[in-house]
Amino acid sequence: MNGRQRQPLWRAIAAGAEVAGRRDGWAQTVCLTCVETFDQVDAATLALRGGPHAEEVLGASDSWVADLAELQYTVGEGPGVEAFTLGSPILVPDLSVAQVRWPGFAQSALAKGAVAMFAFPLQLGAIRLGTLELFRRSTGGLPADELRDATLAADLGAAALLRHARKAEGEGHEFSPDPVRSFQDVNVATGMLAAQLHIGLDDAFIRLRAHAYGRNRSILHVARDVLERRIVLDELAE
User: Fold this and answer.
1) CA 12 → CA 26, 58, 175, 228, distances in Å?
2) For 173, phi and psi rounded to 5 degrees?
């Protein structure tokens, strides 16, 4: 992609940050524009992250990749988690060779059809906000120009995210974007479990995650079962 071809990408992403009445329009724009523009990318997500438990998927190019984001949240490992933790891109042209590195994520992602993944941190200076994650259904790395452009797309996404957060703060209200996949139910279920079992929030979250992983289920589905009383909390006591 040459400089002239890149200009529409940057204009589309910048314009998406200001879509009236849609607080998440910019995040979807970043994901969809990356898929439409990059020849070697089949799907994309943009996630707001605040730590091991705190995550919201603000943009996803389709439901398939949103499910992959949910998988990564459930197992607590993968390129996106590592890119956010380290603050540097994690490029995986073949997930089959990464099964030792992320055994919980790689095998399940491969089973869902994800073969390659590239994760870029959303950060401005020392402020780390989330990740932009690109997926392929076939092996192979990103060409140099697409790698450069993906890094810039992540920078633009970080700038838009920070701008919206600061605007909300200036207007005196909490920044609350509309996610395409929310894990708020996990946070509520974690609090319920912690109160019921008289344990810390971290321990409660680990038990929810272990229960989900051991049964090959999404932690979000397990959390909803907890909230709907379909799981007796004593089952999670050990």
Assistant:
1) 9, 17, 23, 41
2) -135, 165
Q: pLDDT tens, 92-108?
A: 999 999 989 999 999 99
* Beta-bridge mates of residue 114: none
Per DSSP, the three-state class of 25 is: helix
Strand 116-124 relative to strand 90-92: parallel, antiparallel, unpaired? Answer: antiparallel
pLDDT tens digit sequence for 69-90: 999 999 999 999 999 999 999 9
Cα–Cα dist 127/173, whole Å: 21
CA dist., res. 146 & res. 141, Å (int): 10
* Euclidean distance between CA atoms 55 and 48, whole angstroms: 6
Count Cβ atoms within 10 A of the Cβ of residue 35 and give its class: 0-12 exposed, 13-18 middle, 19 or more buried.
middle
Q: Decide: 53 and 32 in contact? Cβ < 8 Å.
A: no
Q: Is residue 174 within 8 Å of residue 211, measured between CB atoms?
A: no
With contact defined as beta carbons under 8 Å apart, do 98 and 208 qualify?
no
Label the pairing between strands 127-136 and 116-124: antiparallel
